[in-house]
Every structure is written in C-alpha cells, then in structure tokens.
Amino acid sequence: MKYPAAIWVPSPNFGYPRSTHGQLASNIQKANRAGEFWHSIVGTLAAAKWRFLNMSEEASAHFLFPKIGAPTQMVDSDDAAWHSGNYLANLHFHGFEFEGGAPGNYSEPLTDNQVEWGIKVTRWLRETHNSPKIYVRRETLWEHNEVQATSCPSGRIPWARLINEWEDDIDKAEVERIVRAMQFRARPKGEKATGEHLLEEWLGSYHKHRYDAAKHGGGGIGEARSRAIAQEEDKKLKVTK
User: Fold this and answer.
1) 15 assigned to some structural domain
2) What is the pLDDT at residue 107?
3) Angle, alpha carbons 126-81-202 (nearest 5°)
4) CB under 8 Å to 99, separation ≥6 — which residues?
5) CA–CA separation, 155 vs 12, rounded Å?
6) What is the dihedral of CA 181, 28, 90, 37, to 10 degrees?
7) What is the CA radius of gyration of the chain?
8) Over the stretch 79-137, which tens digit does the pLDDT of each residue have?
9) Most Cβ neighbours (<10 Å): which of 90, 99, 156, 212?
10) Which residues in the chain show pLDDT less than 70?
C-alpha cells in the first residue's frame, strides 16, 4: 500500500527474490504483528534516494523522512524492503530512514517534523495492515544498532515521546503479555538479552507457530517434515540484504 501523503519514488530493491510482491503483508497477517526499524541516514537525503534507486547497491527502505516536509515512500508497505541486513527481519518489519546524523553529529535529535510524520506513518501501518496496536521497544520498535554493529541511529529517537503519543491506540492487554514474556524468557545464567537475541527469539517464536500449524495440518506428520513444509519459502531466501 502507498501512504497517501508521501511522495512515491519506487525502488527496484525489494522482495525475495527481487521484485516479489506481498511478502511483508503476508507475514504480518500470519504473525498478527507489525513493527518498524528506525534508521538514521548518514549523509544527504538525496544520496540515500540515489542508493535505494541503484540496483547494484542492494538496499532500500519503505519511508524516508526529511527534516522538513513530507516523507518519501520507496517500497510498497506490502513488500519487503532491504533495510536491516537480516532477510527474516526484512520479511517481518517495515524500514524507516531519517535524514540527519551526518559524520561528527550522529546523535542529532530528530526534528519535530520527523517525529510527527513517524507517528502518523506508524499509526497508518498498523491500521492499513489490520495488526494489533502494539508499541513495545525491541519487540515491535527497533533501532538498527540493536541488531547490527552500526552507529545508526545513535540515540536520535525520542522513544518515550513517541510511545506516549501512541498510548491511546495501544492494545494494553497484548503489551502486558509481551512484557511478561520478555521478562521470563529462559536464558543461561549471566547471559544478557541483547537486541539480536530478542529479535531472533521473536522470529523463532513466530516460526514455531508455523511449524506447529504445519504439523497439525499434516495429520500428525513428523516434526522434521512439518519444519520442511513451514520453511519451504525460507529455503529459497539465501541472500541477506
């Protein structure tokens, strides 16, 4: 889907294989969960657009948010953009890129314009994809540096302000369930729950539901076979973008 107020500049870099439509929307419906990665552009907005329009760069994002003015949309919200460096994350989460944070000033705060558009577009994505209005850090709201060794986005995002704006939308019962699950995840003693671990566990939980459903639908077939059925799509997806 295309956000009505955004400038549409389509990128050729999306989907697995390239140009496959509908994968992200399908996974949102299967998991009954939507979420976003908030990234920071190092350099100019024009350079980011050029990169996302260049097939050889193999990178893209759904939305680019300038310091002033309306956002640009480069990938349909139904489709998987190449924004996180992890193809499974790309198949489950939308990608936002925010102008600013140039070298020497990586921690430049988002402008009010960027914050307000981020709030609006996030809300629109939840409504458009008919997913629960859940706004939980490191579950449905991610920074790129929480799963990759990168300076992006370097403390630019005012999460407390954002979540406060969405508070009236929140499915509070679902949020409480998620928070409890995060608190009681089994983990070897002394091991910290890094962002990468949490993302892997979230995706692992989602895929376990797929395995269970495949096993049930197969009339008691073995676990190995049920996993093979559930992973049929994933076996084709070998490129990380």
Assistant:
1) yes
2) 77
3) 60
4) 41, 44, 45, 48, 64, 65, 66, 67, 114
5) 30
6) -60
7) 18
8) 999 999 888 899 999 999 999 866 777 778 999 999 999 999 999 999 999 988 889 99
9) 90
10) 101-102, 151, 171-241
Does residue 225 fall inside a structural domain?
Answer: no
According to DSSP, the residues that pair with 8 across neighbouring strands are 73
120: which 2 tokens? 């609006």
Place of tokens 């539901």: 209
Place of tokens 């008691």: 220
Q: Is residue 65 within 8 Å of 71, Cβ to Cβ?
A: yes
**Residues with Cβ < 8 Å from 9, sequence gap 6 or more?**
49, 53, 72, 73, 74
What is the rounded CA–CA span in Å between residue 61 and residue 183?
Answer: 31
CA–CA separation, 111 and 157 (whole Å): 10
CA dihedral angle for residue 230, residue 125, residue 41, residue 200, rounded to 10 degrees: -30
What is the residue range of 28's domain? 7-172
Q: Is residue 213 part of a domain?
A: no
Q: Give dist(CA 59, CA 82) in Å, integer.
A: 5
Determine the 3-state secondary structure of 155 from DSSP.
Answer: coil
Q: What is the CATH number of the domain that holds 97?
A: 3.40.80.10
Per the listing, tokens 């097939």 go with 55
